[in-house]
Amino acid sequence: MDFSKLYRPSALNSYQFIAFTGLIMSGAAHLILLYFVHRLPEGFSWLYLCWAGLYLVGSLMNLFGKPSEDPHHHH
Question: Mind telling me which residue stretches traverse the membrane in this protein (predicted)?
Fold first, then answer.
């Protein structure tokens, strides 16, 4: 099992990439809201749980999925 599929950017699948990007953007929005608006919308922190869940699903697919599963290339 290749655990570098969990952290190496070139090995991430689209679900992991979206979750990682979402986590970074949510963190940036969190800081902007706290320091410039001085408040967070109710439930904003649930975003982190959603991104973590998406990353987990993507990681499981990446680790245990068949390498030949590529829906974009048809023969």
Answer: 12-37, 43-64
Cα(72)–Cα(8) distance, rounded to whole angstroms?
Answer: 22
Q: Domain tally for the chain? A: 1
- The residue segments making up the domain with residue 58 are 15-63
Q: How far is CA 12 from CA 37, 42, 66, 73, in A?
A: 34, 31, 14, 18
As a whole number of angstroms, the distance between CA 6 and CA 58 comes to 9
In the chain, % of residues over pLDDT 70? 89
Helix (H, G, I), strand (E, B) or coil at 25: helix
What is the rounded distance in angstroms from the CA atom of residue 46 to the CA atom of residue 32? 17
- Work out the pLDDT band at 58, boundaries 50, 70, 90: very high
Residue 46 amino acid letter:
W
